[in-house]
Amino acid sequence: MARGRRGKNQAKRFLLAVIALVLAAVYPVQEQLTKETGGTAVSDGSTLEVHYLDIGQGDCTLIRQGDHAMLIDAGNNSKGTTVQAYLENQGIDHLDYVIGTHPDADHIGGLDVIIYKFDCSKVMMPDYSKDTRTYDDVIQAAKSKDYQITHPKAGEEYMLGEAEVTVVCPVKDSYGSNANDYSIGVRVQFGKNSFLFTGDAEEHSEEDMVSSGENLKADVYKAAHHGSRTANTEDFLKAVDPQYVVISCGEGNTYGHPHAEVLNRLREMGIQIFRTDDQGTIVAVSDGQTIAFNASPSDNWTPG
After folding, report:
1. What are the domain boundaries of the chain?
2. Mean pLDDT score of the chain
3. What is the pTM of this model?
């Protein structure tokens, strides 16, 4: 039995190494997200793929497990067709879940295109609206497809194939007028590996997540609010205890993301980082035991 178990583990490690090599070829690190970066993803149902898309100053993450897919945000208004092309090049025509973390344009700007173009089983947004054309475009897109937008609560659980998805925020019903703190956050567990996404949730929301007692531990954490100093607090990072942090931000953005305070904190804590602003789209593949990336961790600790 022990010999058989060792053989299985060796086979898994070999498979993951092959996947990493293929990913490095299929998703060139330095290229911008264009139709040419596509190609059908490597997925035989035994892995979880997390694609942190390079869409400039904004957020968009595709998560795949077998034939199941989830999209978290879709970048700015000008990025909808870009995200559409990426999904199509992945061979995706159906999304189990579409999450618009909060109503800021750099997160939901492209969601109307995605809702129009794809079959979406469940569309989630926080119970917080904005009087903007961008927000209304998403609402009208959902209405045109007869989709009922749901407002998930912290603690709710969903399945994405064999992956477990737990809503971790927002913990409270009201955060005043701060749209960021209404962000929907989810923790994705696949085997022994876990990934955390919290949109633009800032300090108050982070405090509530820690106080809630919900499991926040994650191997990979997507930095909140593009690496802003208004989020990614020391107490929260200690609760998450990630090995890797992925920062989604645009090259030369006017906000200075990621901020020096956050980069210094991550470096002092010994956390390795990936950055879409100088590495392009980052793809992580988990076999439930270990995680392979399409790039080496960044050695760029320069603020945006």
Report:
1. 2-293
2. 90
3. 0.88
